[in-house]
Please model this.
Amino acid sequence: MPPKLSNPLKKNVSDLPKPPMPPLPPSLRPNPKPGPKEEVTVGEAAAAGGTSVVAWIDERTSGSGFLRGFLFRKVPKGTNWWYTLGSATMFAFIAQAFTGVFLAMYYTPSPTEAYESMRHVNNDVFLGEFVHGMHKWGATVMTVLVFVHMARTFVFGAYKYPRELNWIVGVLLLMMTMMMGFTGYLLPFDQRSFWATVVGVNLNGTGPIIGPYLADFLRAGSDFTATTLSRFYAIHMMLVPGLIGALIGAHLYLVAKLGTSAPPWKKADLPTSDEKRV
Amino acid sequence: MDARQKEQYLREYSALKAKGKPFFPYAVGKDGLMACVVLIVIILMSLILGAELGPKADPTTTSYVPRPEWYFFFLFELLRVIKPPELVFVATLGIPNIAIGLLVLLPFYDRGPERRPERRPIAMTCMVLTIVAMTYLTLLGSLAGSPTEIDMEVAPQYEYGKEVAANSGCLGCHKFGENGNDGPGPNLTKIGARLPKQAIERTLNNPTAPMPSFKDMPQAQKTALVDFLGQLR
Model:
């Protein structure tokens, strides 16, 4: 066997003489002795990351103070299940918005195609009739909840000082909810919804002074035309929901600001001011 | 409420509030549970009641009897309760507008400091009366029956005429057997015994007010309608 010739190119790198370090600034010099690595679990890392994201957002919004005030504000002693009706109404609205988005994906607001598009939703689309039904009956549930919530507020005298303005916002929300029912009823465009809407609009037209103008506005002219349907559609899915969202915001702001009303039967054991002044 | 009563209310309220529990998690928990109940109710209603469509809208049918969604029944029934035409605007806009006005202005005319319902007899009476009236009108509306169906047994050649009658709004003012409203128009269950076909057709073309004229109805439909009405005896 011939002696193994070492390939000069295959020389081990560590055998080579080390080149001198270039004059690097201290921050770029390699750390000569990396310390023992700290064990960080995935959970800890995620927590740290989460904290820093929250801190980043909070630094720019100062939202935590508001959130803390909103979430940990005290709710007076004695509030009961009747106090959940307002949030239940809001939840029904959110459900309506949610199912409404899915219906809007398939709906065509034209007199020739509206009915067929809803037939398509009912017959062909996966869970189509179910979502359509949720939207249709969700409207009923929301309307009932609005009325019951209003009755609760009335019985408990919660519209009195200092919550008068919130009552007015609530009445506006009631009107907007009824408006949603009225405009939404036309959209499936079957006989029932069509003629009910024709009569509904004509009823508006009998009103004093602004009545005829209101009817013309709703119909988009003096007759019921193709524009009428798209007008109702736009009112139903853009104008009124936007107003409801804004009004709910105002309603909630006032609730948080003024505090949830206490049940009228609850009395704090304070000396009444009359006794005090005597 | 005068300034003293306001101040007392605020003091009492802040004492009650101080003794209360935080919104989160106590109220939020209740609200969340309630939201689940609402969702389950909506889902069950959708599964049980469905969302069937009626026949497609047909703007050429002359007078389909419209029925609004049930929560508008109470407004719609006002029209039936208040009959004289010159008072219709009272029902359609007068009463609803006054009601909304009264609701909006409620905190301005009811300013007493008392909040307990048992000590606010006037307010509670008004509320009960309103609820009773709305419930009564809603029930009346729901019992008015389906306005597009006549449940009468007829010979097959009169089926089309029956359909025309059902879809032309006759039921709004006339009764056919079990269906339709009794008045303002006469009961038509046995109209064929009282009027010959020619007279029925004359009435359709030239009715006595307030019945609308069916002069413009397509002849084929009108003939079928007259044939159907003429055999009702």
Chain B touches chain A through 85 residues (CB under 8 Å). Chain B has a mean pLDDT of 84. Chain B has nine helices and three strands.
